Amino acid sequence: MSPTTDSPSIAFDNSYAALPPEFYQRLDPTPVSQPELIAVNETLARELGIDPAMLRSPDGIQMLAGNRIPDGAAPLAMAYAGHQFGNWVPQLGDGRAILLGEVMDRHGVRQDIQLKGAGPTAFSRGGDGRNWIGPVLREYVVSEAMAALGVPTTRALAAIKSGDHVLREQGPLPGAILTRVARSHIRVGTFQYFTARQNREAVEQLMHYVIDRHYPDAAQAQNPALALLDAVIDAQAALIAHWQSIGFIHGVMNTDNSSITGDTIDYGPCAFMDTYAADKVFSSIDRGARYAYQNQPRIAQWNLVNFAQCLLPFFDEDKEEAVRLAQESINRFDERFIGYYLSRMRAKLGLVDEKDEDLTLVSSLLELMQTHSLDFTLTFRQLSKRSATDPFAPGGSLHDWHRSWQRRVGEEPAALDAATQLMQRSNPVIIPRNHQVESMIDAAVKDGDFAPFEALLDAVTRPFDEAHEQSDLATPPAPDEVVTQTFCGT
After folding, report:
1. Of 56, 183, 304, 469, which residue is the least packed, with the fewest Cβ within 10 Å?
2. Bridge partners of 89?
């Protein structure tokens, strides 16, 4: 069975498909048997100029399933390579995702629309190219929570059940497809793919494409390639600082999962910390703790080194000078990361000005949180509330630190009031906690019940709403609910 071509109304304006054929494989999604809608992100649909009612219609559901190709689409699987847990893999690519095409959103930003779980491609490496429902629901909830927290991220436009089952280690599981939206799906690994093949022309084409699409100011720089590297370094430094400030652990920071836009991409075994620990790891495949929470800034810089290597020929004709210029840029990552990180953490602590001792204040709080096994999200939220029972109260484990914090903020009521307001805007009440995510997946798989998914999605997309203060969804897990490992969908 092949997809049919029809005309659900989407104003596609495709540019990646105009690149040379070595950049992708052109193919249609593999149809599924009985697609059924799980969810549509109506707000996002409208931002993309798409009628949500169309997506909910029979024709729209067939399109989201890959059974019907809308007019103007140019379906393709992108080619890329990458370092996976530090090991070089010369060919990866979209093994279970197909880019339908691009649209211009209402802000004039070009956005990809991609079907994840749409069937095998030339890059599937023997896989089935499918998703089961667990990873689809996880990515939908977590990516939308990240967007609500202001973190640059891919977005979830829709999710459907395929009506088919996929085989995984657990046995047959219900299949599903996620419709994902991104400013682009170009990765560090996309550049690596052509660099490894010594295809300088393709690297140069890709570089100019990325500059035109994402960093147009770089085109006006004296050295556009170096300006591109600087821009991507800055975007990644800001992104990882944001992750660290909310206790988010990506889990698979391979170069093929490192977006050149500085967006969070490819939510697999991702997780938010409950109890704070700097060396926290959740991913079942990260046996060496390469991508532990505390390592994320270092790994981001490592990925950027690989990006810089791809661009070396365009920095300067003299190889030694090119390396020097690249190293200068890479060396600025630490300063940029610390700057972004301190900005985030000052807001979480209600600090409206900057002082040299602020990093020490932050670090000492985190050390105490680890020593006393305190919840990351809840502790920062409690600082803005200061109840008689929280760890900052007299006799509590953080009381001495709290007195130092008070001196830093200032004892005047106006200063404390301003700090409190800033903290309440900066510290979420609710995050997608691992045990809640697993619970909603279990309900969907075992009982076909999507009410827990809908409730969690509604809550985490309003993360600063004080109405969540008493919600069970905002409560840390009981000892028997703690999730210690998360798993990739493949």
Report:
1. 469
2. 82
Q: How far apart are CA 164 and CA 172, in angstroms?
A: 9
Rg (CA), the chain: 23
Can you tell me whether residue 287 is helix, strand or coil?
A: coil
Indicate the residue type of 346.
R
Q: How confident is the model at residue 386 (pLDDT cuts 50, 70, 90)?
A: confident
CB distance 105 to 306 below 8 Å: no
Q: Where are the alpha helices (DSSP H) in 247-389?
A: 296-315, 319-331, 333-348, 358-371, 376-385
Q: 470, exposed or middle or buried, with CB in 10 Å at 0-12, 13-18, 19+? A: exposed
At residue 384, the pLDDT reads 85
What's the pLDDT at 313? 97
Residue type, position 424, single letter: Q
For residue 328, the tally of other CB atoms under 10 A from its CB is 11
Total length of the chain:
490
pLDDT at 435: 97
Determine the Cα–Cα distance for residues 427 and 424; give it in Å rounded to an integer. 6
Structure tokens at 248: 């988010």
Catalytic residues: 256
